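BUG: 3D viewer hangs when loading the predicted structure for this chain

Environment: internal workstation, default settings.
Expected: structure renders.
Actual: progress bar stalls at 90%.

Input used:
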Amino acid sequence: MLDSKDFKPFLQETSKSLNDLKEVLGFKKTKKELEKLEKLTIQKDFWANIQENNQIFKKTNYLKSKISNFEKLIQTYNDIKTLIMLFEEEQDELLLKEAEKELIKLQKNIEKERIAVMLNGKFDNKNAILTLHAGAGGTEAQDWVQMLFRMYSKFCQKQKFEITVLDLLYGEEAGIKSISFIVKGTNAYGYLKGENGVHRLVRISPFDTSGRRHTSFASVEVIPELDNDTNVVISPDDLKMDVFRASGAGGQHVNKTSSAVRLTHIPTGIVASCQNERSQRQNREVALRMIKSKLVKIKEKENLEKIEDIKGEEKEISWGSQIRSYTFMPYTLVRDHITSYETGNINAVMDGEIEEIINAYLKKTQE
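Structure tokens produced before the viewer hung:
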């Protein structure tokens, strides 16, 4: 355990980290911007434009969150200093233990907030829509999709993100062939965008009676959920719509009506499905929003001038295209091929402990 004198260099280092974070946050500028937006909300004609007002509220809440998070860090830092002062007066070792525990936690939270500051991309503050597809590997790959969905669900639970399944297709024997779900929360897309790509699994298959080692693949597509007023015009002639009965939860309603919708953007071959909503019209609206989000993301990524310049593209979900490998046998290892991050604690990763992998990606892209 540390002596009270040993805390001095750690407190100085932590103080410097807080000052650096304050500068990166543009704390004073952020507070002024928040004050300006709050003044707008009390004007008489504020409610004249509902869409614009919603954007202002979102921005206001986002800035409030940034300010509040930083002020909590400062408060914790001051509380630690108080604990150390009390220890020096009372010589109660429990106070020093508490200060040590809080200092370790504070340093982790400062790093977490520093990572959050990196999420300054155009769509980083949006909700995220994830679509998982089984690739090469048959039933084994479908089970892998289900494992990945569980991993992301656990991660979102830890982050207090909300998940809503939009579309779900189960495998014939086990697992999931494909699933689309929306993740709602501050910077959800910013945190999850690095998951986009092919994920490879190596393990002894539970579906193989011979106990042989199998390699399976699944693709993870991550797009931002864009607002309804996104300036993307799609000609009705460029869309093909198929309707079918929903296969997920929802009671008798989903079994009696063909409310689920699959939209195909004919020029690019982009497909989006939704069966979560109660009506065919609502499902079509969600699927159309997904297609628009995909088109905008591709346009931004490929630096295209117009949506019309996007060409159809098919990528095989198989060997050689993976961004990350998860090995259960003959050893345990998760290796991210983009950042070279590695961990042997694969069970923790599958339980949603992917913050370090995400942080490594954000640092890499920031560099």
